[in-house]
Amino acid sequence: VRCVQETVIGFYPPIENFLFYLLVMIVLSFNGNSLGIMAGCMFNDIRVAMAVTPTLIIPFMLFGGFFLNRDNYPVWLGWLEWLSPFRYAQESLVMNEFESYNAGAISFLSYDFGKWESLGLLVILGVVYRVVGLSLIHI
């Protein structure tokens, strides 16, 4: 999809940005897989797991920074932001795309990490979700 977008809008970034984009998408899919394993291992019935999984994923989407910014939700819900893989993926991708253009736009979004640090945290989060899911198999 990104190859088509860049061709249509006439935007040709360096190949390193494109490869980093692909890397973030692969790691994000690993996170989704890990969340699915964790949700599947929490319940003995597959129907219950399939019903509960959206209730786990939707808060991550809401508090990941794309729909709501930190200033738009109560402080006591702020911890959900740090558990969301979408938050780290979005920060990595925004930093990858716009770090060379305008630092003011990035500072407006109040990101805390750089693109590589966010990618590393995304990998760690995926491994944690995978380990938690696999440890729930034995319970």
**How many strands appear in the DSSP assignment?**
0
Give, in order, the helices and strands. HHHHHHH
Query: Strand percentage, roughly?
Result: under 5%
- If you compute it from the alpha carbons, what radius of gyration comes out, rounded to the nearest whole angstrom? 17 Å
State the separation between the terminal residues, measured CA to CA. 41 Å
Low-confidence blocks of residues: none
| Average predicted local confidence, pLDDT | 83
**Overall body shape:** globular
The description of the largest β-sheet is: none
Description of the structure:
It is a single chain. α2 packs antiparallel against α5 (85-98). With 139 residues, the protein is mainly alpha-helical. It has helices spanning 2-9, 15-42, 46-62, 79-83, 85-98, 103-108, 115-136. The chain is globular, with a radius of gyration of 17 Å. The termini are far apart. The protein is built from 7 helices and no strands. Helix content is 72%, strand content 0%.
Topology readout:
Elements: H1 2-9, H2 15-42, H3 46-62, H4 79-83, H5 85-98, H6 103-108, H7 115-136
Summarize this structure as a short list of keywords or feature phrases.
139 residues, globular
Summarize the structure.
With 139 residues, the chain is an all-alpha fold. 72% of the residues lie in helices and 0% in strands.
